[in-house]
Amino acid sequence: VQLQASGGGLVQAGGSLRLSCAASVSIFGVNFMGWYRQAPGKQREMVVAITSAGSTNYADSVKGRFTISRNNAKNTVYLQMNSLKPEDTAVYYCNANIYARDYWGQGTQVTVSS
Fold it and tell me: Average pLDDT per run of 10 along the chain, which is 114 residues long?
């Protein structure tokens, strides 16, 4: 299973970015997919997860600003990030939990300037 994340970049505070995570396998039956992030000197933290039924769980710090979605036909998960803040700066990783095993994408850098 390979996950290819893309869409990161440099944006000013208040701006938006859309991350994509393309999987090498069908995600139709994958119960948990999500996005994590890791800022310099900090531990990796969950940003948001989505189940196969479409249920979501957002970190408090991104609620109301970030939206996760999945397109099973394209085997892709998206993260729409609006109203970005400098504290959102981090490497963002796509995650898929398949049969209790975690798979990770390579990470995509998001930098928000003040």
Answer: 96 98 91 95 96 95 97 95 98 94 95 97
